[in-house]
Amino acid sequence: MSNFERLTELLNILQILSLSREVTVLNASGVVLETTPHRVSQLDEIFSYVRKEFNNDIKLEDMGSLISMTVPSFCRFFKKNTGKTFVEFLNDYRITHACKLLAETDHSISDISFECGFNNFSHFNTCFKKTTSMSPSDYRKHLSLMVVHDI
Q1: In this predicted model, what pLDDT tens digit does every residue of 52-101 receive, in sequence order?
Q2: Same topology between domain 34-83 and domain 85-151
Q3: What DSSP line would sit under 81-134, residue for residue?
Q4: What CATH number has the domain spanning 34-83?
Q5: For a tag site, which of 56, 76, 113, 131 has the least CB within 10 Å?
Q6: This prediction's pTM
Q7: What is the per-residue burial (b if ≥16 Cβ within 10 Å, else e) of 102-124?
Q8: Which of 50-77 are b and which e, b meaning 16 or more Cβ less than 10 Å from the residue's Cβ?
């Protein structure tokens, strides 16, 4: 497709989605964070760091140091304020980025796993399947079938 055709097709897809009554609630628990401005600042610092460095090796020691906490204190703080361990959060962030790359590029799944910060392809597959309930290759196939089917 030309760039213009791709843009119009995207708009068609968005219209179909806006009219669809098939809904899956992604945040069923309705997470509410009650926190102080200082904690918000610390969480913002953590999230900013992850956004910039998610594809590199991130150590708990580095995260604790970032907000002047020991590793155990950081882990308790993060879990209390987000409902997830830092490793769960980081893996979810990486998998979300992997989903984006699987949808938007034709890079190999192995390359995508390393590009998203996973040092072990097997671990990437395990995390991906745990998060999305399908393998990366099935996810990519599912996306291409959806696009072909909707057109």
Answers
A1: 999 999 999 999 999 999 999 999 999 999 999 999 999 999 999 999 99
A2: yes
A3: HHSS-HHHHHHHHHHHHHHHHHHH----HHHHHHHTT-S-HHHHHHHHHHHHSS
A4: 1.10.10
A5: 56
A6: 0.72
A7: beeeeeebeebbebbbbeeeeeb
A8: beeebeeebebeebbeebebeeeebbeb
pLDDT digits 0-9 by tens, 30-60: 444 455 677 889 999 999 999 999 999 999 9
For tokens 């020691």, the residue is 61
Rounded to an integer, what distance in angstroms lies between the CA atom of residue 115 and that of residue 108?
A: 10
Q: Where are the domains of the chain?
A: 34-83, 85-151
